[in-house]
Structures are given as structure tokens and as C-alpha cells.
UniProtKB/TrEMBL annotation:
The lineage of its organism: Bacteria, Bacillati, Bacillota, Clostridia, Lachnospirales. Residues 12-141 form the Flavin reductase like domain. Its cofactor is FMN. This is Flavin reductase family protein. GO terms for molecular function: FMN binding; oxidoreductase activity, acting on the CH-NH group of donors, NAD or NADP as acceptor. InterPro entries: Flavin_Rdtase-like_dom, Flavoredoxin, Split_barrel_FMN-bd.
Amino acid sequence: MKKNLGVAPLVFPQPVLIIATYDENKKANAMNAAWGGIVGKDKIIINLSAHKTTDNIMKRKAFTISIGDKEHMLSCDYVGIVSANNEPDKMEKAGFTTTKSKYVDAPVINELPMALECELLNIIEGDMYLTRIVNVLADESILSNEGKITLNKFSPITYDTSESGYYTLGKRIGTAFKDGERLK
């Protein structure tokens, strides 16, 4: 029997999204965002409260989103708990270096193997940032022989909102849009 829990203790794994921006002095900054996801072929929505990062997004209308991975979990968590308003060397302490994006006015975090280069389209209901993905960057170390990002080589982490834990994705258990054919 299922128990009614309401919406507060929702267990819904969220990708660990590391948002990188430039401030007014062109200094790179990053934060960890827990609420967001792909909403179409080239769109993503991220729910963000007020931060230095959101101020930077409003000024530049651009940012990058890197996907947190197992190897950099500590650094990803650090940029989520420390504000650049209080720690000017936040990126250095996290062990992150950056390169300027070729497509948007934002930094790409070199250490994280995948990044989405995004431009702001709209803000919905005051805190949901709708963006267009203009390019995807992936380190060759996470690509298959066919040049696609593969979870056989990439270890993205998810955030469990119910127990405040980080988890790696598990092993492949099936083939999408094919295995269900057996029930026809």
C-alpha cells in the first residue's frame, strides 16, 4: 500500500548542475544548482534563488552548465555552499580553472568533462531561468568510439533531495524505445 507523503519529502534525483558565469570584472564564478533539467531538444530550465550567479546571468544573459561528476563531487559541493560574495577565491579553492566559451559570454570549467553553453531566453515566475543551449562541449575521455557522450565513460552525479545525498548513476538495464516492444 502506498502512503500519501504530500510534496515536501519528494524523492526525485536531480542532476548536479554547476552554473558558471562571469561577474562585472570578468572573474569566473560557479554555483551548484539542485533544481533543473532539459525541457526540449535545445532548452533547459533551472530554478535559482537570488545569488551572485543570478546577478551575473542578468548582466550577461549567458552562462555555462557543467554536469557534476564523481571525480569532482567535493568541488561541486563546495561551490554550492560557499558564496563568491564572501569568498573571492572560491573557484581556486574548489580547484576549478576556466576557459572562455566560444559561443556565450561565460566561462567553461575545464575540470568538468561536459558543459552546456547557454543563453538566457526568459525568466518564468521570478526564479525559473529558461535558456537555450547553443553548444555542448564534451571531453574526449567521455566519448564513445562514435563520438557520443557515453555513461560507460562518464560518471555524472545526481542529488537526492529527500536525503541530501549525491549518487552516481547505475549500470545500464535496458534499451529505450525498444525493450517495451516485447509487451506488444
